[in-house]
Write a structure and sequence with these properties.
Layout (H helix, E strand, L loop, with lengths): L37 E5 L12 E5 L11 E2 L6 E2 L12 E5 L11 E7 L16 E7 L3 E2 L10 E6 L4 E6 L5 E5 L8 E2 L12 E5 L4 E5 L11 E4 L18 H5 L5 E2 L1
Antiparallel strand pairs: 1-2, 2-3, 4-5, 5-6, 6-7, 8-9, 9-10, 10-11, 12-13, 13-14, 14-15, 15-16
């Protein structure tokens, strides 16, 4: 959160490439060569809140030693949320602006801004024009970019105060939701692949109660089929480990053994 913010959002500011404070994006690929690229998002505390001065600095996998153009997109109070926002398979620059133009209340609406790559393998500039925008989420929400929730592209957030995930398809805007965690608990979002399909499942983990709550995409994200598992307090969640399955093994192997509630 901003040092000047007397009441920061619940989720704070995730690191670049992190849709939540703990889960990394599977891939940041700005040139569509199937390999990871490096990018930094930087702001200065001296910048004015309303100015478009945030800087994206790129190093692509083709040659990490070559500096790419530094592009300006976003501002001091933004959270970087790179992901797929148009129809190609090239990562787009994007930011989430929590509680834009609000008074600081947790319910102030937030805005997403993205710079569509539009099939270009060199990151474009959207400093002044050419960007997309959508109002979705509130100031307290944790943005969750890059989630595969079906055909098309989606915006998604997690709201800690009621333990609920919200998502919508760009261009369609039908609102979906699933309450996974118990309200007003310190649970954090852990979306991932926990069943046999390729759609994201919604999960949360409460580190104080060592409680893991899970809603599967194979049930249509039905909360009636929610599963819960309580682990020994000595464990910590490691969703990117592989145990017996390729890539997302532990995410599929552990939680499904829990008891449904």
């Amino acid at each position: 959160p901003l040092a000047s913010d007397p009441s920061p959002p619940w989720g704070g500011k995730p690191q670049l490439g992190m849709p939540s404070p703990r889960i990394a994006l599977p891939m940041i690929d700005f040139d569509r060569d199937g390999k990871r690229d490096l990018v930094s998002f930087s702001t200065r505390s001296s910048d004015a809140i309303g100015s478009n001065t945030a800087e994206w600095t790129f190093r692509t996998s083709s040659d990490f030693t070559v500096a790419r153009p530094v592009l300006r997109f976003g501002r001091l109070d933004d959270i970087p949320v790179p992901g797929f926002y148009d129809s190609d398979m090239i990562t787009d620059q994007a930011v989430y602006r929590p509680g834009e133009a609000g008074s600081g209340a947790p319910t102030d609406v937030s805005t997403w801004y993205w710079c569509p790559s539009a099939d270009r393998t060199t990151p474009p500039s959207c400093a002044l024009t050419g960007y997309g925008a959508a109002i979705f989420g509130t100031r307290e929400d944790v943005p969750l970019p890059g989630l595969n929730l079906g055909p098309g592209r989606y915006l998604a957030v997690y709201r800690p105060s009621n333990g609920t995930f919200y998502w919508t398809q760009i261009g369609v805007w039908t609102l979906f939701s699933a309450q996974v965690a118990q309200p007003n608990t310190p649970s954090f979002p852990m979306p991932g692949l926990y069943d046999a399909d390729d759609l994201i499942d919604f999960a949360t983990y409460d580190p104080y109660g060592s409680r893991f709550d899970l809603v599967l995409s194979s049930t249509g994200w039905s909360t009636a089929s929610k599963r819960v598992r309580v682990f020994d307090a000595r464990f910590r969640p490691t969703p990117d480990e592989t145990v017996g399955w390729p890539v997302t093994g532990i995410r599929r192997a552990l939680p499904v053994a829990g008891s449904p509630v």
